[in-house]
Amino acid sequence: MRSFKNDYSEGAAPEILAALVDTNGEQTVGYTEGDPHTERARALIREACGQPDAAVEFCVGGTSANLICVAGMLRDFEGVVCTPDAHINTHETGAVGACGRTVLPTHDGDGFLSVEEAERVWGFQTSCGRHMTRPTLVYITDSTEFGGVWDRRRFDEVCDWAEGHGCKVYVDGARLGAALESPANDLSLGHMASRADAFSIGGTKNGMLFGEAVVIRDPDLRRDFPYLQKMRGGLMAKGRLLGVQFEAAFEDGLYWRLARHADECALALRDGLMAAGYEPYLRSDTNQQFFTVDAGLARALEDACGCEIFLTLPDGRQVVRFVCSWATETADVAELVAFCSEMPR
Amino acid sequence: MRSFKNDYSEGAAPEILAALVDTNGEQTVGYTEGDPHTERARALIREACGQPDAAVEFCVGGTSANLICVAGMLRDFEGVVCTPDAHINTHETGAVGACGRTVLPTHDGDGFLSVEEAERVWGFQTSCGRHMTRPTLVYITDSTEFGGVWDRRRFDEVCDWAEGHGCKVYVDGARLGAALESPANDLSLGHMASRADAFSIGGTKNGMLFGEAVVIRDPDLRRDFPYLQKMRGGLMAKGRLLGVQFEAAFEDGLYWRLARHADECALALRDGLMAAGYEPYLRSDTNQQFFTVDAGLARALEDACGCEIFLTLPDGRQVVRFVCSWATETADVAELVAFCSEMPR
Amino acid sequence: MRSFKNDYSEGAAPEILAALVDTNGEQTVGYTEGDPHTERARALIREACGQPDAAVEFCVGGTSANLICVAGMLRDFEGVVCTPDAHINTHETGAVGACGRTVLPTHDGDGFLSVEEAERVWGFQTSCGRHMTRPTLVYITDSTEFGGVWDRRRFDEVCDWAEGHGCKVYVDGARLGAALESPANDLSLGHMASRADAFSIGGTKNGMLFGEAVVIRDPDLRRDFPYLQKMRGGLMAKGRLLGVQFEAAFEDGLYWRLARHADECALALRDGLMAAGYEPYLRSDTNQQFFTVDAGLARALEDACGCEIFLTLPDGRQVVRFVCSWATETADVAELVAFCSEMPR
Amino acid sequence: MRSFKNDYSEGAAPEILAALVDTNGEQTVGYTEGDPHTERARALIREACGQPDAAVEFCVGGTSANLICVAGMLRDFEGVVCTPDAHINTHETGAVGACGRTVLPTHDGDGFLSVEEAERVWGFQTSCGRHMTRPTLVYITDSTEFGGVWDRRRFDEVCDWAEGHGCKVYVDGARLGAALESPANDLSLGHMASRADAFSIGGTKNGMLFGEAVVIRDPDLRRDFPYLQKMRGGLMAKGRLLGVQFEAAFEDGLYWRLARHADECALALRDGLMAAGYEPYLRSDTNQQFFTVDAGLARALEDACGCEIFLTLPDGRQVVRFVCSWATETADVAELVAFCSEMPR
């Protein structure tokens, strides 16, 4: 059976790969500094965002993009507020902290940063002046680590709160395509771009060989990013590679089609499993689906389709994660649903 | 009325000050590198700890001692487990994080690190290999931020747990005197020194003008400390000053007498306030006492005796902290108890 | 005319690209953690090095590889000795320094670290104990930034010196292929691997799309590298991409053939220009060639073939750099030599 | 014989010590945050500098002051230009680098930063855009590490150069008193304060028990300093101690009288040794004097008066340093001159 382990288990979508092959013989300047593909990709992304003055930069991967942007928007003694499950808090080996900045997790349990928790953390951290890390940045993820989609109301609430508290906003868009193409979404790329000080547009998990774009409105980060990117080891010598891929992805909407396909597969999977009596952990309308199962079943599913055992609940049951990608096929979903339906529970 | 704000509001105990004055004219080598007072202080502390081979170093202050030791015992990608109220987690402006290391707070609410919470954090942080900060150090505070005293059983439990999980142990002893001289204490300096990989012996809050001693058994930190201390700006040019003070404090038990006096004042205050119907927040048997009062009373007490409003509870009531020191007098306590008894509640 | 600007101006060698295309549909685990291509590449490189127990890791780029390894082999207060032109000293925006470690350049002017200068820097840096950054690592580049080749005698001298002074040795092999395939080379990969504590094998500048391998004998770095790589943002999600490329490069000697071709083109260019009366700046036997010309000619050459103006001499003349790669053709070299020969000087 | 090893070998001047003793019983708020002595010291220093709006902060020591200010004025990828002998480059164990910032030494050999060398370093470091550490700060020391005094012309030249190149200026004034009280000085405190973005006023080496003041005009550093100081472990709990000392030093010119005395002793020593045929290494008009002697004589002098062997020249001769302080007496100088005069050379 096809693996549902994650969305970075396979190569690039055929159109992306073809673009890399077609341009392989071209000689270009390096470092994303002016080759025609990178410049064209920049223009396409600026246009898609409705931000003609934003900087668009290209990174080798998500952790690199996050640490450059998050640490780059913080002075030494400042911190970033995020949910406890945030990638920068749990799965990047302290990368932001390794740059000397502090991650300030809330107690939110569902992947969405709440204004109440942001306010609580902010209130605590500013209660003792210079003796405490000062929160000046908010980090959210769309779609969230649990597959959730930020709707416009919720997003605006957080942005309003941030604005009112002297905080900037960064959106980790490692799975931004999956979020914006979800049927549950009502947030436009343009609106997000108009309020976030910076955000990433993930390629690795959406059909590219590798690479993330970063859109930057914040003037300080715009100025500093080129230096920080080189200094943090995140600048690609053959910058063209990133430009070529994002050019192909944004020239005619391929980026969004790939994401929509992954979402559709995942929603079919979700509906199939629910129909078969499986219990969703948290509602997800994107390409990651989470179900709560007994430990024995979790292991069986892991063996069968590579799904990850995401967490273990206090009662011993486990949450498994199924991930669909651009490469998942309808038949793969049907096969998995059939398999799951037949498993004893 | 005398202020009960904190134990670093005043100068040095007379004996300490006299030692500084008496030695003021001596010419010595700098940097705690071999002047006779520093060497004598080292010998006295080693003897008091029963650790003839431990390194004893002297620092200008507690944050400096903590950041040098904690960051110094961690490799870049490692983290330190502590309670959420730990000084390194809340009141040092991210000093450990600024050295690129990560603080990993538990959910313990009473100032004591529990084995259960340490295990939970450790389990989570090691669940995803290289993708997560690796916990390799445990940080505890004796007495705790809430005035609690680590008894031997509890201390050994944490040390056993740490040993079993490849973690070192650091004890922040900013108020170690208050802990070890408390009537609630059954932990000897010798036993603590035999199990902690490093710990501090606070002078600033126990009658010295300033300064903390650090006792180090950990061989790596022993070797690195001199360099780290200079590099982090924590090495005093006139190192003699620290040596002279700790020599005076440990020559004939002055250090312990000063701490015992502060404890006795605070326990008399506690008993007086409880007799007057005040409600303790958490039990403290040391020189800091915490009481829960209405917000109005909190402000009145703050105005009268400088006590700090330590935290606000969900029900709106506030926890105030009274701190006694070497300089508090019995009459000061009596005056405060009388004042509090007369306050309307 | 084909550009001679650098060896990372173009895509991948056809065999490398084909391997990526051929494996594009495979589903593999991520992060270089066990996919068959990465494991095969590791085995091939270990075998080529004669180091069955070495760790072989794969990085996205050279700066990332350098900062992870160099900072990873240094404790906080330690430094790395290198030549002033070393990439880590000049062209990585202080990447090693951004990890809190110190770069200690010598005064060597020709790209080769001399034992005399290493000794001088070491002597100075250890003359004042804890007050100075302690040198514990030596960084060399083969081929050097000026195209030079480390011969075995010179290499062993530096390794002997390092061994005698408690220093480890790291070789930046961004252009290792060009060095080892040069006619001037008498140093085997096996010998280098037996003495360097860690070294990189550059792919980006030798026909791969991107990527560097790192070979690690040093036990501490072996243990820490996986964490450091993730923490510094240098771990690729689709780790397979790196494995596939290095597998293709090392399966049948392609890596070395590509390098030899680039060297041969460059030596033909060198001989052609010298025959035409051009003056070499420093002798290079590898794929980078440096010539001293008048400023006007420098600009004309830059316009014609993209060569970089590398530095300006005190007398106003300039050093231009021509770089050949796997993609350079004999006819390109002939065209450039003809062009240069006709230029008025 | 009295030791001439350094100016931090002894305690505090009697007036400073008396001020500490007199105020020992006062209860004050901590952390230099508003106690009357600290506020008075701030006002006195602002007045002396003619900078009513400058921030005046107090640090425990020179390395701490330097690292907070220098790193605090640099973004992550920026560097500070200084002479190779600068304290931050050689004798602070890489403290600035440990904050992730880069020190960019020139080749100046006499302790004075020259505009020519600043320009050269700046030109090199900005020749390759984002690939190189960007110089944005100039660090000078007055008096220099070799005892030299910055005259107004030279100082203005560097400040003009900095202004023209987008660089800020920091003056390390660890021995500022010795500089400004030197007969060779024509630079007023007010003029320096009007041009430096920040500078320190050293207490440790000029008769205080310990402590340095920092005067800050730079608006960014003013805003950040309180947080940075706590975060770097450089904030003293009993902040009063620093306030009391600087209040006593600046109330009636004591600071300057102490420095002038040290200078006068040193100049008498210099003249005496020159009359006896000793050869000065570099001209110094302040409290440090440097003489070139044979190695045997260097050792004999070191044994006799504790002077440091500062460096060894290529010809094997050595430079010894004699330092006078507030505590040096005329008779001490006479004794040393007599001793030196009798030594066989």
Keywords:
homotetramer, alpha/beta, 2 domains, Aspartate Aminotransferase, domain 1, 16% strand, 345 residues, Aspartate Aminotransferase, domain 2
Describe this structure in words.
4 copies of one chain form a homotetramer. By secondary structure, chain A is of the alpha/beta class. Chain A has 2 domains: 14-252, Aspartate Aminotransferase, domain 2; 255-342, Aspartate Aminotransferase, domain 1. In chain A, helix 2 packs across helix 11, helix 3 (62-72) crosses helix 10 (219-231) and helix 12 (254-275) packs parallel to helix 14 (330-342). Chain A contains 14 helices and 11 strands. The radius of gyration of chain A is 20 Å and the shape is globular. In chain A, the strands form 2 sheets. In chain A, strands 1-7-6-5-4-2-3 form a 7-stranded mixed β-sheet, sandwiched between helices. The first copy, chain A, has a 4-stranded antiparallel β-sheet with strand order 8-9-11-10, with helices on one face. Chains A and C meet through helix 1, helix 3 and helix 10 of A and helix 1, helix 3 and helix 10 of C.
Individual helix count of chain A: 14
Strand content of chain A: 15-25%
Task: Characterize the largest beta sheet of chain A: strand count, sense, and whether it forms a barrel.
Answer: 7 strands, mixed
Q: In the CATH scheme, what's the topology name of the largest domain in chain A?
A: Aspartate Aminotransferase, domain 2
CATH second-level architecture of the largest domain in chain A: 3-Layer(aba) Sandwich
Question: Any idea what the radius of gyration of chain A is?
Answer: 20 Å
Count of domains of chain A: 2
What is the spatial order of strands in the main beta sheet of chain A? 1-7-6-5-4-2-3
Uncertain residue segments of chain A:
none
Instruction: Work out the number of β strands of chain A.
Output: 11
Helix content percent band of chain A? 40-55%
H/E order of the elements of chain A? HHEHEHHEHEHEHHEEHHHEEHEEH
- What is the SS-derived class of chain A? alpha/beta
Calculate the terminal CA-CA distance of chain A, rounded to whole Å. 20 Å
- CATH homologous superfamily annotation of the largest domain in chain A: Type I PLP-dependent aspartate aminotransferase-like (Major domain)
User: Class of the largest domain in chain A, according to the CATH hierarchy?
Assistant: Alpha Beta
Q: Which descriptor suits the 3D outline of chain A?
A: globular
Nearest-integer average pLDDT of chain A: 97
The largest contact between protein chains, plus residue counts on each side, is:
A-C, 52 and 52 residues
